[in-house]
Amino acid sequence: FLGAVVAVAAVIGIALVVVALADERREAETLTLAVARSLASDPAVAQAVAAGGTDATDALQPLAVEVTAETPIDFVTIMTPEGIRLTHPDPAQIGLPYIGTIADAAAGEVVLEEFTGTLGPSVRAVVPVMVDGRVVGLVAAGVTVHWARDAITTSCAASSRATRPWSRRDSAVW
What we know:
Layout: H1 2-40, H2 43-51, H3 53-70, E1 75-79, H4 103-106, E2 111-117, E3 120-131, E4 134-144, H5 145-163
Antiparallel strand pairs: 1-4, 2-3, 3-4
Helix pairs in contact: 1-5, 2-3
C-alpha cells in the first residue's frame, strides 16, 4: 500500500512540476514581451536606433542597463534590423551579431522563444522598432532559464511547507 501511495505522489509531483514549468514559461514570455514592446515603442529608442552607429549605443546602452537593474529582466539587446547589437549586458558583445531568431521580428512580427545565447539559456521576446511603417531596429528582452527554474523551486518549496504538518525540522532548534 505504501508503495502505491509513493508512486501516486511521485506522479502527482511530476505533473505539478510540468504545470509549474509551463506557467513560469508563460510568465517569462509575458514579462519579456511587455518590456520589449515598451522599449520598442519609445520614440527616443526609435530615434536612436534609426540614427545608428556609436551614437545609438551611447544613447541606448545606459537605458538597457537601467531596465535590467530595475526589473526582473536579465538582458535587453537593442539591435539593427540585421541583428547587429547596439546594446548588450557584456559591452564586448556590442557590434557583434545577435544570437537568436530575428527574421520574423525584422519582418515586423514578434518572436517568442527559448534560446541559448551568450548569457546561457533564456526565454526572450524580440520585437520590431517601427518608424513610419518600416522596421528600423529590434529590441530583445529576456530572462535566463535559471530565473524561471528558481521561481518554480521557491514556489514548490513554499507550497510544500504550507501543505505539510509542522515538524521539528521546520524549527530553528533542529
